[in-house]
Amino acid sequence: IEMTETSLTLEFTGGSEFLVGNQKIHQVSIAGEELTIRSVLLWLKETLLKNCDRIDLLLEGEAVRPGVLVLVNDTDWELLDEERTLLKNGDRVTFISTLHGG
Amino acid sequence: QHESMTKASLQCVKCSNPSTIAGAEGKNVAYCDGCYGEMLTHKFRSALGKRRVFKDGAAKEALVVSDGSSSSVFLLGQIRDAIQLNPHQRLVMQPTIVTIVSSVTEGVLARVAEKESLVVHLAAVMRPSEEKVLDKGRDAEEEIRGLAQLLSSCKSPTSRDEITRILKERLILRLAAELQLSTVLIADTADDLARLSLSALCIGRGGQISEMTGGVEKRKGLPTIVRPLKEIRSKEIAMGNRMFGWEKEVIYVEEDEMKKPMGYSIHKATEDFIETLHTEGFQATVSTVLSTSSKVHPDVNPSSLLCTLCLRTFSKDMVGLCPPCQSIMDEIPDWSGIAHLVQ
């Protein structure tokens, strides 16, 4: 059976890049139908953040931690559907931590 | 346009472009990138302008304190832009920028000193009063170890975070004195000050919060502290830095400190508390806390003494250390390293 895969660019900034190997941009391919930001978060827990000991700086349970901003194609997710925002091939999801630095 | 744009306010409130960023109060006020940037710059300029910080014959020279954080970067960027405008509009100010490093991780001070001209480690505040904090110092690493030891000896994460905060304030005042500057700009944001208000209340500093969070703080015999980012939220700082291309200036040390268990202090708890309230939809939390803080005043008069550690008034009859500072000092077994600060 062919599983639908969605190619996305994930961007981590504001200090969150340290949770993903100090790398700001990740090109990923995530399996699943009707991919939402929530699906991406769950995927992150299983992959990029799997062995991360400070995952709490980005995620709180299955949600984004308060103080972390999310953009989809440079648009504030608050103006979209937040976690329920549907993603399509080629979308760029940006996570900006406002929590630390300095 | 994105397919799932179903929410209200699809249009920028300033122009007819589609909105891309929700305002700090919630999605009912949203902006396009350009108008958002303009809004932030306007907030900054009017914060300085309305408080007449550099007007009415006031001195133009000021100390600007940075700690490499995103709010510091935003402050510096705004100042630089404002100074470079045309003669009619520009901000007339001569800033001396000092970067304060608080990280006790080896090598961080050296790394920052490569990028910035005037760099001071928080540990320098422990030098005797006759010594200058801006001097290189005999042994930087040993000084830092001395600070690290003091902090790790604190009996609780709260006293550790609180003494760190107080020492930074004292260092800033020492810097201003050494540079003979009577005005200091610091990068405290609305979120920082709301957190500070609640933490301060928790440890008994209720009477001091209006001064500690004020846009302009004047104390007799001390430099004026200005907080131009007081009405700016951390989300606005993060988005602003991104929009103006200033993100790369932010200095991170979390990658090193992230692994260390920091301990849960009052300061961390209030941070979580406020952030969670905002996420749960209580968008006015920060602004409400701040407007309330500005109204809480201690029962003091002009002749009330300043606490010898935090250098603020507390009550009419207080002498020496104010009760919250006394509690903090009680949690430090050996405070000989900072004894000179409380003489």
Compact summary:
The complex is a heterodimer of chains A (102) and B (343). Chain A is mainly beta and 102 residues long.
Task: Walk me through this protein's architecture.
- The complex is a heterodimer of chains A (102) and B (343).
- Chain A is mainly beta and 102 residues long.
- Chain A has one helix and seven strands, in the order ββαβββββ.
- Chain A has one helix spanning 37-46, and strands at 5-13, 25-31, 59-60, 63-64, 68-72, 75-76, 92-97.
- In chain A, the strands form two sheets. Chain A has a five-stranded mixed beta sheet, with helices on one face. A two-stranded antiparallel sheet of chain A has the order 3-4.
- In chain A, strand 3 and strand 4 (63-64) form a beta hairpin.
- Chain A is globular and about 40 Å long.
- Chain A starts with a strand and ends in a 5-residue tail after the last strand.
- Chain B has 343 residues and is of the alpha/beta class.
- Chain B is built from twelve helices and eight strands.
- Chain B has a six-stranded mixed beta sheet, sandwiched between helices. In chain B, strands 1-2 form a two-stranded antiparallel sheet.
- In chain B, strand 3 (61-66), helix 2 and strand 4 form a beta-alpha-beta unit.
- In chain B, helix 2 (70-83) packs across helix 8, helix 6 crosses helix 10 and helix 6 (190-202) crosses helix 11.
- Chain B is globular, with a radius of gyration of 21 Å.
- Classes of the chains: A mainly beta (102), B alpha/beta (343).
- The A-B interface holds A 13-15, 18, 22, 53-54, 57, 65-67, 69, 72-76, 78-81, 84-86, 88, 96-98, 100-102 and B 2-7, 9-10, 19-22, 26-27, 30, 33, 67-70, 72, 234-235, 237-239, 242, 247, 250-255, 258-259, 272, 275-276, 278-279.
- Chain B: Keywords: Cytoplasm, tRNA processing.
- Chain B: InterPro entries: CTU2, Rossmann-like_a/b/a_fold.
- Chain B: One of its GO terms (cellular component) is cytosol.
- Chain B: It comes from Pristionchus mayeri.
- Chain B: One of its GO terms (molecular function) is tRNA binding.
